[in-house]
């Protein structure tokens, strides 16, 4: 019995065994995958469908989850001015931080010069592997084409194509429509909340096979490319991983500190997701889980619903580091002269083309090819040098993207005064602990049956 005037102490959940923690399971799956790919390469090649199947299940749910989250957040708030403020603040933040990432990437690659001395002869390179990229690269998407492509031809095509920007565009308009009709939208919002709950239940079920997916993806990568390829271009890998670490330490860490939270603790909180993207090289695999965790951290539901999907299209911190490092590395390796003026032009081009990079593994190298074609300086065919280690590079930049998008959402929520600092402090201090779903249902933070 609690004393009058005093709140009852919250019940503490028993600490689960370490082997039931998702981070440990994903890490164990990755270690087993590396061993399998190295010692049993033929078996490792055949394990690719494990990772691909997991990614497809998540991709299947991305569109509906964005739609439900955006509609519930915006229509629930019913404040058009707030939506506009959040969008403007988010876009300004994205542009500033991605610009810093590009500058840092250019500085580090010019200081360390990992490509100098390779003296690659483009005439002797077999470019059959990059023919598809080269063909696409010479069709440079203009700004007007990019903006027009944000609008889907039909509402269904946005979801069918899996284009995050198109889904977001339709979802925002639909949410505004719900907000405009007021109380008459209540039945539709109740239905959307119910659908959202069922989608997150599916995500919870799917995450149980995440360690298996990481195992299959890593086993395939090691079997296909081996360690020899990684070692032959090890200088670039080490330079790029160092650049990602410097970005986290010199840019994101101070941003987090100024906004009152610890970056290392945040990375620990989303540790399972970070390990998963290392294994799958796809940021889409953790999108639904990030929505859940960011709401648990005290970010307002409407802010998460608008900022995180937008960040997936516009806030590619790690990908910008990759573009800057890879482009200058290829210039160094092929003895293509590039002065600082040319590199600044390259930076301006990257600021535009990087917005087209999707969260799916493999899209970044296509955008890089388009960037090289637009700059008209570095041979597009030279991207063949990166194919063998692209998987290892993508693990680094997708990891950085996820950390950057999580920081961005918390920062914008803080700027908007839509951040529960008590929840943020408590969650980061204790670490993520999955809620026990009552009667087989998965409750999300912010729903009527759950609180932060």
TrEMBL record:
<feature type="region of interest" description="Disordered">
    <location>
        <begin position="430"/>
        <end position="452"/>
    </location>
</feature>
<protein>
    <submittedName>
        <fullName>C4-dicarboxylate transport protein 2</fullName>
    </submittedName>
</protein>
<keyword id="KW-1003">Cell membrane</keyword>
<comment type="function">
    <text>Responsible for the transport of dicarboxylates such as succinate, fumarate, and malate from the periplasm across the membrane.</text>
</comment>
<feature type="transmembrane region" description="Helical">
    <location>
        <begin position="344"/>
        <end position="372"/>
    </location>
</feature>
<feature type="compositionally biased region" description="Basic and acidic residues">
    <location>
        <begin position="430"/>
        <end position="444"/>
    </location>
</feature>
<keyword id="KW-0472">Membrane</keyword>
<keyword id="KW-0812">Transmembrane</keyword>
<feature type="transmembrane region" description="Helical">
    <location>
        <begin position="199"/>
        <end position="220"/>
    </location>
</feature>
<dbReference type="GO" id="GO:0070778">
    <property type="term" value="P:L-aspartate transmembrane transport"/>
</dbReference>
<keyword id="KW-0769">Symport</keyword>
<feature type="transmembrane region" description="Helical">
    <location>
        <begin position="90"/>
        <end position="112"/>
    </location>
</feature>
<dbReference type="GO" id="GO:0015366">
    <property type="term" value="F:malate:proton symporter activity"/>
</dbReference>
<keyword id="KW-0813">Transport</keyword>
<dbReference type="GO" id="GO:0015138">
    <property type="term" value="F:fumarate transmembrane transporter activity"/>
</dbReference>
<keyword id="KW-1133">Transmembrane helix</keyword>
<dbReference type="GO" id="GO:0015141">
    <property type="term" value="F:succinate transmembrane transporter activity"/>
</dbReference>
<dbReference type="GO" id="GO:0005886">
    <property type="term" value="C:plasma membrane"/>
</dbReference>
<feature type="transmembrane region" description="Helical">
    <location>
        <begin position="392"/>
        <end position="415"/>
    </location>
</feature>
<feature type="transmembrane region" description="Helical">
    <location>
        <begin position="21"/>
        <end position="41"/>
    </location>
</feature>
<dbReference type="InterPro" id="IPR001991">
    <property type="entry name" value="Na-dicarboxylate_symporter"/>
</dbReference>
<feature type="transmembrane region" description="Helical">
    <location>
        <begin position="155"/>
        <end position="178"/>
    </location>
</feature>
<dbReference type="InterPro" id="IPR036458">
    <property type="entry name" value="Na:dicarbo_symporter_sf"/>
</dbReference>
<feature type="transmembrane region" description="Helical">
    <location>
        <begin position="240"/>
        <end position="261"/>
    </location>
</feature>
<dbReference type="Pfam" id="PF00375">
    <property type="entry name" value="SDF"/>
</dbReference>
<dbReference type="InterPro" id="IPR018107">
    <property type="entry name" value="Na-dicarboxylate_symporter_CS"/>
</dbReference>
<feature type="transmembrane region" description="Helical">
    <location>
        <begin position="53"/>
        <end position="78"/>
    </location>
</feature>
């Amino acid at each position: 019995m609690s004393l009058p005037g005093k709140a009852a102490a919250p019940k503490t959940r028993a600490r689960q065994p370490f082997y039931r923690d998702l981070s440990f399971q994903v890490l164990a799956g990755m270690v087993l995958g590396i061993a399998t790919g190295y010692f049993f390469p033929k078996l490792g090649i055949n394990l690719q469908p494990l990772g691909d199947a997991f990614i497809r299940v998540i991709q299947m749910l991305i569109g509906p989850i964005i739609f439900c989250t955006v509609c519930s957040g915006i229509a629930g708030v019913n404040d058009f001015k707030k939506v506009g403020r959040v969008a403007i603040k988010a876009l300004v933040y994205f542009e500033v931080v991605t610009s810093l990432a590009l500058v840092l990437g250019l500085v580090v690659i010019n200081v360390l010069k990992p490509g100098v001395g390779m003296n690659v002869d483009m005439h002797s390179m077999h470019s059959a592997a990059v023919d598809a990229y080269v063909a696409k690269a010479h069709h440079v998407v203009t700004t007007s084409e990019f903006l027009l492509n944000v609008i889907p031809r039909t509402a269904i095509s946005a979801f069918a194509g899996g284009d995050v920007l198109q889904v977001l565009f339709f979802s925002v308009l639909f949410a505004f429509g719900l907000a405009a009709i007021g109380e008459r939208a209540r039945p539709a919002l109740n239905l959307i909340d119910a659908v959202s709950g069922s989608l997150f239940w599916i995500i919870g079920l799917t995450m149980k096979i995440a360690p298996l997916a990481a195992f299959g993806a890593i086993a395939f990568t090691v079997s296909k490319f081996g360690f020899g390829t990684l070692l032959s271009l090890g200088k670039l890998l080490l330079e790029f991983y160092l650049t990602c670490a410097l970005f986290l330490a010199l840019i994101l860490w101070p941003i987090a500190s100024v906004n009152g939270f610890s970056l290392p603790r945040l990375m620990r909180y989303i540790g399972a997701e970070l390990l998963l993207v290392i294994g799958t090289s796809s940021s889409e695999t953790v999108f639904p889980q990030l929505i859940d965790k960011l709401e648990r951290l005290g970010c307002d539901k409407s802010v998460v619903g608008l900022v995180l999907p937008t960040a997936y299209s516009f806030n590619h911190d790690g990908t910008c580091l990759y573009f800057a490092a890879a482009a200058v590395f290829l210039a160094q390796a092929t003895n293509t002269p590039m002065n600082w003026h040319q590199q600044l032009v390259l930076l301006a081009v990257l600021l535009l083309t990087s917005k087209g990079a999707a969260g799916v593994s493999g899209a970044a190298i296509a955008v890089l090819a388009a960037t090289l074609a637009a700059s008209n300086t570095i041979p597009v065919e030279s991207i063949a040098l990166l194919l063998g280690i692209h998987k290892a590079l993508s693990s680094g930049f997708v990891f950085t993207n996820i950390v950057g998008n999580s920081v961005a959402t918390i920062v914008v929520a803080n700027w908007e005064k839509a951040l529960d600092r008590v929840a943020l402090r408590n969650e980061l201090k204790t670490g993520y602990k999955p809620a026990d779903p009552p009667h087989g249902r998965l409750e999300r933070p912010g729903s009527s049956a759950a609180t932060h």
